[in-house]
Each structure stands twice: as structure tokens, then as C-alpha cells.
């Protein structure tokens, strides 16, 4: 069967693809339980007495259920959900995945998303290898699957040689030689294994392995939203380092990494990634995992200030005309609209739940931006209530509230930051930004600040709307605590009801 032509279904917000028509094993209902407070997942094919148990490595139920859902998807994809599967069956499945990976084309704009998918699968396979109760065929397939995903990532960088080599070996019906040589790093510790007549082999200490261990050690001190962003940044760094063994890295390697990252990113964005890199390497150095972290003065000192611009009122009008024309059930419509009329950050909007849509005694509807339930905020001043101005730029409060009431997800919009960021910024480029990289979704925040400043709104009110800690930030960077009813009056008087 030509698996490359099978329809795939994307689970938005998690960079996962599950090919439902490729699932040949029907599972009994997955069983979750806790062992010493840590959640475990047990899966069992229907009618089978054999089962597979994996630690989800968290004591938090919502996090465990999310991890469980995505992990089950990966296990199904690689047919590792069936403990009764023979090595031949698992090997044939790996061959199908390898051939499909090579045969599937990827649009240039989707390369990063596809890389994240492969990295997700590789990470899940490492989790399975580290915490699962494995049969011998499952263990071989898990290690080989991780290598396969590494080869798939290199294929996206224009180097398909490793993937071709694995396919050739699968076609020979043997075990690829790579399984008998240095395996994909499943932990940060050295793995030595002398074989008869051969010296011991130490697996490379990759940034991916280091970062995973760092995150697990610090997971309890990181909010889920911050953790998700950290994972994404770590994946970008790992992909750019291309499997570099950090035990032997040099200053030149990190300078080359910085040069590679800045080819497609602003210095300020690269500095953020370098900060994440530095934290992991400093931690690794302090724990004697590497001898030296060459991170001193690695950040850009010039050109790192934010250069984001504000959209003009004419451009804001174009954006809202487009948004108002989208269907009522479109998350993109309300993501753009909320940014325009409230100036909220993307992360703040995407974390909103139904409970965060409130109404004052005077009937003013507002969004409550808070850190309840582990939501992440940029600063403590970011907590605020921002009124929703009915009719501003044609915004329909009635239709928005209907959209919220009919939603079924845990958040109002139901999408993640990486997914939303890609699609919303792509939309803005097509509508008004063009090739101007300084005009992004975040520029809508600047636009509201600029409008408030031009209208002579006192800085304390703008601070209350934008959640900034000082007037300098509110008006110098973007354009107190003020009662939401007063903010409603300010916005109602300043936001135009007619599109520019």
C-alpha cells in the first residue's frame, strides 16, 4: 500500500501527525495509574494479555493526560503499542516509515514544522526507551526508530544519505548496521559497550539529550506554557547543532551556531536562543557533564534591540476587514480581533479559557489575563482585565461570546503558540506586511499603544490596558492598575467603530 498517499490528520497545537489508516492494532482503553505519585500509562491490544507500561514522568494530571495522548500517537505510528509484535513486523513498519519519509515532499515554508514533528517522535521514542517495559523486538525498534528520525531530520537539511542507507539495509531484510554501532543517545551518560574484538563506543553527548535531562530536572519549577516554549527553543538549537558532541565542543562551534541562527532570525531572537543554550550548558558544566561551556559574551551586543514597528491605522483597518470576513467559528478571526482591540500578547490570548471571559456588575465584558492554572505571564504587571469594545473596527462582541460558548477545547481559541504564530504572521505578511520583517503579530500591540498616545490618553490608562510596568515601556517601547470600567470608557472613545 502506498502510505505516502494516505490522508493524514494533524492534531493542532502539538505538531503531531497521525495516519489513522495506518493503524493496524486496536487498543483496549488505555489505563492510567499512579506509582509513587507519578502517572503511568498502560496500553494493551484488544484481546491480548500482553501490555506495555510507560512512565509519564509527572505528578500533574493535566500534563500527564496531554503527554499520554501524544505518546499513544507515536506508539501507534511505530506499531510499538503491540507488545506481541515480532521484530520482523516492527522492522517492516520502520521500512514503511523510512520510505514514506523520503517520498513525502515538504513545502519550504513547512520545513520547520516537519522538523518539529520528527523531533517530537524522536523525543517520545527516547521516553519509551528510558521508562517503558520493553520486549526485545520493541527495544531494537525503539532505538532504530530514534535513529530513523535523526536521519529524517538530516534529510530536511538536504542530507538524505543516512535515510537512503537505512532503507537499503531494510530492503536487505537485515538489521541496519547503525543498530550495532553508536546508538541514538537515550541518556546524557556515556554508553560504552565493548564487543568482541572491538573497542568500547561512547555515544555523542548531544544538546538534545542534555536539554531533555535539564528540563526533566527542572520541570516542577516551570509553568506548562513556559515549558512548551522552552522545548521549542531547545529543538531549534538542537537542529542547528546537528548532533555535535558537546563533550568536545569548542568556542568556534558556538560562534558557528550563532552565525547559522542569525541567517534567518533577528539578533534579539538569536540572543533569546543563546540564553537558553547558555543555561543548559552552564548546568551541564556545573554537573560535570561537560568540561567547559564556551558561552562567555556569546550574545550579540549590537542590533539586538527590538525593531518591531506599529501597523498604521489604515493597515489595522485592512486586518480587521479581513478578520470580520472570516467565519464565526474561525479561531484566526478572534485571535486577530483580540490583538487589535486589546493589545494583548499572543501568548496571553492563546491561554485564555472560558473562565477568563468576565462581566462587571455594570455589564462590561472583559478578558482576565492571569496566571491561574499554571499559565505563564511575562511579568507580574501582566495580570490585568482588559475590556472588549463592541463595534471597534467592526468587532462583534455577540458573535465572539457565541464562539466562546460553543468552543469545546481547554482554551478559547484551541491552538498553541507555535501553530498560531506561524499562521497569523503568515496571514499578516500576505495582507499588509509583505517583506517587512519588523511588522509581525506583536506589532498590533504597538499599534494600540501608538493610537492611545496619539489620542492623548494618560499613560496610566495605557499601562492598565497593555500590562506594562512603567510609562516608559508603555509609550517609548509600545506606544497601574486602573479599574476596568474606566479602561472601557477610554477604549470606547478612542477605538474607531468604522474601518479606516
UniProtKB/TrEMBL annotation:
Family: Belongs to the 'phage' integrase family.
Gene Ontology MF term list: DNA binding
Domain Core-binding (CB): 205-285
Protein name: Site-specific recombinase XerD
Low complexity: compositionally biased ranges: 187-202
GO terms under biological process: DNA integration; DNA recombination
Keyword DNA-binding: yes
Keyword RNA-binding tagged: no
Species in which this protein is naturally found: Halopseudomonas litoralis
Chain positions covered by the region annotation Disordered: 174-202
Keywords (A to Z) from UniProt: DNA integration, DNA recombination, DNA-binding
Domain Tyr recombinase, residue spans: 306-492
Domain of life: Bacteria
PROSITE patterns named in the record: CB, TYR_RECOMBINASE
Amino acid at each position: 500500500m502506498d502510505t505516502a498517499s494516505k490522508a493524514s490528520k494533524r492534531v493542532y497545537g502539538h505538531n503531531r501527525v497521525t495516519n489513522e489508516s495506518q493503524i493496524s492494532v486496536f487498543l483496549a482503553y488505555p489505563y492510567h495509574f499512579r506509582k509513587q505519585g507519578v502517572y503511568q500509562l498502560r496500553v494493551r491490544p484488544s484481546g491480548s494479555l500482553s501490555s506495555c507500561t510507560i512512565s509519564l514522568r509527572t505528578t500533574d494530571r493535566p500534563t500527564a493526560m496531554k503527554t499520554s495522548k501524544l505518546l499513544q500517537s507515536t506508539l501507534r505510528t511505530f506499531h510499538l503499542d503491540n507488545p506481541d509484535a515480532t521484530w520482523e513486523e516492527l522492522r517492516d513498519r520502520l521500512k514503511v516509515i523510512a520510505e514514506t519519509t523520503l517520498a513525502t515532499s515538504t513545502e519550504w515554508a513547512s520545513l520547520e514544522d516537519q522538523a518539529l514533528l520528527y523531533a517530537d517522535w524522536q523525543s517520545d521514542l527516547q521516553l519509551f526507551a528510558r521508562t517503558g517495559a520493553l520486549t526485545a523486538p520493541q527495544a531494537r525498534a525503539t532505538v532504530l526508530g530514534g535513529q530513523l528520525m535523526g536521519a529524517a531530520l538530516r534529510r530536511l537539511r538536504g542530507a538524505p544519505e543516512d535515510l537512503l542507507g537505512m532503507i537499503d539495509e531494510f530492503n536487505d531484510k537485515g538489521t541496519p548496521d547503525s543498530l550495532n554501532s553508536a546508538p541514538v543517545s537515550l541518556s546524557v551518560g556515556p554508553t560504552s559497550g565493548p564487543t568482541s574484538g572491538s573497542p568500547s563506543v561512547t555515544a555523542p553527548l548531544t544538546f538534545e539529550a542534555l536539554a531533555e535531562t535539564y528540563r526533566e530536572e527542572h520541570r516542577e519549577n516551570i509553568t506548562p506554557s513556559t515549558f512548551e516554549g522552552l522545548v521549542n527553543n531547545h529543538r531549534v538549537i538542537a537542529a542547528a547543532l546537528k548532533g555535535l558532541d558537546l563533550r568536545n565542543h569548542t568556542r568556534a562551534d558556538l560562534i558557528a551556531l550563532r552565525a547559522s541562527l542569525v541567517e534567518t532570525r533577528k539578533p534579539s531572537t538569536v540572543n533569546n536562543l543563546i540564553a537558553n543554550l547558555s543555561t543548559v550548558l552552564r548546568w551541564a558544566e556545573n554537573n560535570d557533564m561537560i568540561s567547559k561551556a564556551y558561552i562567555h559574551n556569546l550574545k550579540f551586543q549590537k542590533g539586538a534591540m527590538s525593531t518591531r514597528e506599529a501597523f498604521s491605522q489604515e493597515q489595522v483597518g485592512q486586518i480587521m476587514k479581513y478578520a470580520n470576513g472570516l467565519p464565526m467559528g474561525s479561531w484566526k478571526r478572534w485571535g486577530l480581533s483580540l490583538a487589535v482591540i486589546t493589545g494583548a500578547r499572543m501568548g496571553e490570548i492563546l491561554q485564555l479559557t472560558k473562565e477568563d471571559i468576565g462581566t462587571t456588575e455594570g455589564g462590561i465584558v472583559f478578558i482576565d489575563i492571569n496566571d491561574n492554572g499554571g499559565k505563564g505571564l511575562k511579568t507580574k504587571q501582566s495580570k490585568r482585565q482588559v475590556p472588549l469594545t463592541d463595534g471597534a473596527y467592526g468587532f462583534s462582541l455577540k458573535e465572539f461570546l457565541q464562539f466562546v460558548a460553543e468552543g469545546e477545547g481547554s482554551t478559547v481559541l484551541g491552538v498553541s503558540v507555535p501553530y498560531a504564530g506561524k499562521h497569523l504572521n503568515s496571514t499578516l505578511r500576505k495582507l499588509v506586511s509583505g517583506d517587512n520583517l519588523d511588522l509581525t503579530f506583536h506589532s498590533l500591540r504597538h499599534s494600540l499603544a501608538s493610537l492611545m498616545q496619539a489620542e492623548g490618553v494618560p499613560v496610566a490608562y495605557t499601562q492598565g490596558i497593555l500590562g506594562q510596568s512603567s510609562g516608559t515601556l508603555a509609550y517609548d517601547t509600545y506606544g497601574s492598575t486602573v479599574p476596568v470600567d474606566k479602561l472601557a470608557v477610554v477604549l470606547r472613545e478612542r477605538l474607531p467603530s468604522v474601518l479606516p
